[in-house]
Amino acid sequence: MISSFLEGAALIFSPQTLLIILAASAIGLVIGVIPALGGMVAAALFLPLVYHMPSSFALPFLVALTCVVYTGGSITTILMGIPGTTPNAATLIDGYPMAQKGQAGRAVGAAITASMFGGIIPVFLSILIVPVIRPIVISFKAPEMFMLILLGLSFIAVLASDSKLKGLISGFLGMLAALIGLQTSSGQYRFTFGIPSLSSGLDIVPLALGLFAVAEMFDMIATGKTSIANNTASGITNRELRQQVRQGASDVWKHKWLWLRSTIIGYVIGLFPGVGGDVAMYLSYSQAKLTSKHPELFGTGVVEGVIAPESANNAKDSGALLTTMAFGIPGSAVMSILMAGFLMTGITPGPKLLTESLPLVFGLEIGIAVANLIAGVIALIFAAKLAKVANVHIDFMFIIVIVMVFIGSYVNNLSFIDIGTAVVFGVLGFIMKRLNYSRPAVVLGFVLGEQFETYLWRAYKLGGPTFFLTPGSIVMLVIIILIFFAPLLKKAYQHLFPKKEVEGE
Amino acid sequence: MKIRHNTIVYFFFFIIAVATFIGSFSFVSIDAWLLPRLLSVIITLLAAAGVITDLIDTKKNPQSTQRHLHFYNKGEGKPLLILCAWLVGLFVCVYLFGFYIAALVFAFLYLLTKKRKLLVCIAFAVIFTGALYLIFKIALSTQLYPGLIFVK
After folding, report:
1. Which residue in A188, A436, A452 is closest to B27 by CB distance?
2. Which chain B residue has the Cα nearest residue A54?
3. How distant is the Cα of B57 from the closest Cα of chain A, in angstroms?
4. What is the ipTM of this complex?
5. Cα A39 from Cα A87, distance rounded (Å)
6. pTM recorded for the entire structure
7. A231-273 pLDDT, tens digit each
């Protein structure tokens, strides 16, 4: 195990790889700062760049690019009151009020430091957890894999959207899109309408690019936005800002236990397939509020409200990456794109990766830590300058994003159908965004849907109709049932054991 | 009674699900038809529930100003249509002239219609296309589609 870790470290600490991670961190930070773009768009847009890279460069690049996006996103969230990326939304609750109170630098300093160390510590958690999950992963056969996928799908359904109905529809629509193409176990083509390019099914990259990048461009242009103004740090001198950033960084040390708790929460949430960053952030924000000595101040601009979600946000990627690599099931929507990157470079995520390529697994986990460190340092130095990136005019952003979407969609299969897919899903993504459907649920439904069917038939052929009666499957089935019936159980509990009213109320 | 976009989209998903269900009858093997049928039944039920609850709500609160009921507001339709036209134009341009020329023309014309200075339009279009060429052709040796009229 230690030797694998050292081999992984050697993989990352080569000068070329470090340079690649540095470049990816810088790009990821800039993308994160621009509202509307995010980890998903970053990964999908830059996927064409890694086609011709060896896997030892391509994978650290993609991993670094996607995991630092949230650090950049926190800057925009705090200074401008607009979440740079969706999972930064919880930081908004206290980060923006802090900025309005003239503590922009402190909030940014705390967010970046919490993000940076939140992304570093999970590497050590992974070292501890890999020996534990390795035998579990190896023991997983088709029935357990099927149940794990079902578990991921259940999480999407319950957690993906404000509206449960829309969250469910989004996930199932993604699964429906995955039906297109060849059904492997029967050898039948489904919903290809005689178009040869559709015989291998829809590609995840144009689908994600459409749903996120194109949809965001539609949204920004429709609302007539030109750029994002109202930079709350504009009234503060550079010297004051630097002092505040230092204060914010020391705040993280003052609240080290909160930071550690949030980091662990983020990491553990990340381990569950299908559970996104939003859950990790809001959960850690809630625990910060619950354990605070002054919960009533949350929402008015307290630094703990920034530290907690930001630590969890960056920590969740390590967990999600581990799940993705170990089981071949994406830990989050962004990981679905990363999985495409893995396959593109000839590496198939799954149990074999954990047994045969453990140095790569550790290497990529270390890559996340290094990228977070680099991004943290860059962001701490250039926070104010980075915030200006968000002011890039929509006219220029539109051209760059749309052309990159077209190229990114085309390059994988050299097919114009993929460009069409990106445009169609762009329109759909825009409608879904406006009507509050969950777009990450579509992506996860798409990826998990494909695997759902494959493992369903494999498990069925292996164990017959009672294939789910293995110990591992039963445990996961119980969890799935609990997920769906938790609200009912809670109501029943409250009915059976009503809270006694406090006298005088 | 003005129907909300939300209801129309639920109905659209309902139609897709029903079409999937009907389409699944062309598959012989159970491996091929089970999941499409299962999914289409679930989506049909969910979308039907959405349509019904939305119609009831529309009747109760016809002037509801709640968010997430319409996907475009007054004045947003035209820019959206223009945007779609730009995408179709770029698609045709890429198909005919390839990525590099299409990017150059698209960047130049788009900025020109946004009333940018001619020099800015030219400079941005050239720098942007040059950057694409440097990244894809020189650095990554990726052969992007050259365009129908340039295909050898």
Report:
1. A188
2. B140
3. 15
4. 0.91
5. 10
6. 0.79
7. 555 566 677 777 888 888 899 899 989 999 999 988 888 887 7
